[in-house]
Amino acid sequence: MTTRDQILSLFRARPGEFISGQEMSSRLEISRAAVWKQVKVLSELGFTIESKHSQGYRLIDSPDLLMAADLKRDLKTEIVGCSLVSLPEVDSTNTYARNLAENGAVEGTVVIADRQLAGRGRLGRLWVSPGGVNLYTSIILRPDIPVQQTPHLTFLSAVAVAETLQELCHLQAVVKWPNDVLVGRSKIAGLLNEMSAETEKVHFVILGIGINLNMRADQLPTPINYPATSVLIESGKTVDRCLFGQTLLEKLDYNYLEFRTQGFGPIRARWEKLCNIFNRKVEVDLGKTIVRGTVVGLEDDGSLRIAQDNGELFRIVAGDVRLLDV
Description:
Largest sheet: 7 strands, mixed
Helix content: 25-40%
Distance between the termini: 49 Å
Strand content: 25-35%
Oligomer: single chain
Number of strands: 14
Order of helices and strands: HHHEEHEHEEHEEEEHHHEEEEE
Shape: elongated
Strand order of the largest sheet: 3-4-5-9-8-7-6
Structural class: alpha+beta
């Protein structure tokens, strides 16, 4: 946690109280000048901080920012969020998290940013990532599983996102194979999981998650495959981004602990309940060809099983799925 976040944690622990510069200096083992500098940074970020001679500083009001100190406060997790990095802006949280992972970051490390300058979706697509409105995060995991099981973590992420949207925002979120979350027919969240592995060993997996929360209609990108939406557009209400982030991290943690002890089965069952394409006609764009048929199941490796009109079964490992019977 940065010095700025540590100072914010002190304010949060003693709401409405003045804390002297000397106390902050002693507790954080920094100079009083460094305390003043970090208080100034917080003020520039939009925090209202009162300063009084001989009494110190106290926090009056806070902006809607995703700060590590706020996200960590009351966070009930065992693994996810054990270390948390919050950034005002970054090229991509996945890229930043990968650099941390390659340099030994512990499992459960979370990178969260207010804005992304080069957010990425699946197949290298741009993920529009303005500041102050959405949630962009990446989580480092180091699962002791075979390489072929790593796609299971995409389903784990999708379930956590959909359940958070249902619980906090009361939206009928559904999961779209392989890595999107929809409300109605519009995309509200996307997942981009990346890994580093050898033939038989997973070094780490990055769970990348982007969720449209308080985005206005005029901020949405031009649709390519699916129109986009946000919680604000669907519900008419803004979301407390910090509360949403905490709830999501707690659900990811629960799902990951369950996955480590019970395997893919429970996650798969919940994903299937959230999915609306089983036994329905679909068209799958594989890039060079189109496959049409009825979705009849999910394979153990997470691939989609399609029954074509001629009765042949086709296994889909990657592609864009579109419902035909709507």
